[in-house]
Amino acid sequence: MADVRRPFRQNLYDLDLPTLQALLESWGEAPYRARQLWEWLYIHLADRFEQMSNLPRSLREKLAAETAIGAPERIASQLSRSGETRKDLLRLADGETIEVVLMHYDQRHTACISSQAGCPLGCRFCATGQSGFQRDLSAGEIVAQALHVARQLQATGKRLSNVVMMGMGEPLLNYDAALTAIRRLIDPQGFRLGQRHVTLSTAGIVPGIDRLADEGLQITLAVSLHAATDDLRDQLLPINRRYPLDALFAACYRYCARGGRRISFEWALIDGVNDSPQQAQALAARLQGITAHVNLIPLNPTPAYPGQPSSPQAVQAFSAVLERLHVPHTVRTRRGIEIEAGCGQLRRQSPRPGAPLQKD
Ligand code: SAH
Ligand code: SF4
Fold this sequence. Notes:
The protein is 34% helix and 19% strand. A 10-stranded mixed beta sheet has the order 3-4-5-6-9-10-11-12-13-14, covered by helices on one side. 45% of the residues are buried. The two termini are 20 Å apart. The protein has helices at residues 17-26, 32-42, 57-66, 127-130, 139-154, 175-185, 206-213, 230-236, 239-242, 245-257, 277-286, 312-324, 345-349, and strands at residues 10-11, 67-68, 73-79, 85-91, 97-105, 108-112, 116-118, 133-136, 162-165, 198-202, 220-224, 263-269, 292-298, 329-331. S-adenosyl-L-homocysteine (SAH) binds next to β10 and β12.
């Protein structure tokens, strides 16, 4: 339970190492204590102060009184039948809820994490967009989701290998927190995730893409495209009216030119909406001059949008056009469809605190 008596205890995941050092020094602690605490948080994944056996009891008590390890509480879970996808609904300190997903694929263990509670962009086909926007997450609340998943894996001797910021929310509208969280996760003295194993997905916030290009990071940028003509994209992703395709692709081009890595373009195939050969051709034309990889995934149906996933034949035909036009692409299967793996769907379904929890 969130501690209602002390709702404003400082979340340790929101502090960088120098700030933590300054805090502990202000308590009269030796400088190396902050590093020890850091390792408990990000290497050993401790979620209770009692675990921190090399810290003096007095310090652990002070930490427990003044701060919190912002590990969110799990209030509901869904496990796919095959066991390869698990989705948890987490409750934050103020009662807000977010989703985090763990996917097992080959030797990879990937966490899909959220950057906002809800999303202000209102894409028609997206369960998160359909449920509105609540608030930005703090950097610590974003980091905590990856640690939550890593802790689950740790229990079975596995290590988190990938993080995709493809859960709820638009990370480039919560830029500072999203980037602070990514830097925390790739910290070589902390969580040590490989930069190349981190993906940030955006619906196309042009100023954010330009800012990201200047960060000097080796993470993967994914752009949720879903349509290659403005009239169609305007309907599916309202943000396209603010940043239309010419502006979006100009930003992608600048991103590549600045040494950014290959961009992934996400395309949810919707039956009779964006799965025509003409759209595939328009997509190929748009990608000229950009180092790109297209991910095709049949739509996950959501309650407030009538669209259905494209038929296997339409997926194949779309893929064949891209093949012919030499556009690198992958047809992804929908994973864990039976647990409604599409982002925002578990939250819509069971928003109540204390909703029944499926046992592991
Ligand atoms: N806001 C960011 C990141 C979160 S959404 C973005 O839009 O990129 C993560 C991905 O899920 C996006 O590519 C989004 O378009 C896709 N998505 C959302 N709802 C979906 C659905 N019902 N079926 C398939 N993909 C969906
Ligand atoms: Fe927001 Fe991404 Fe969903 Fe669009 S697809 S509403 S940007 S979370």
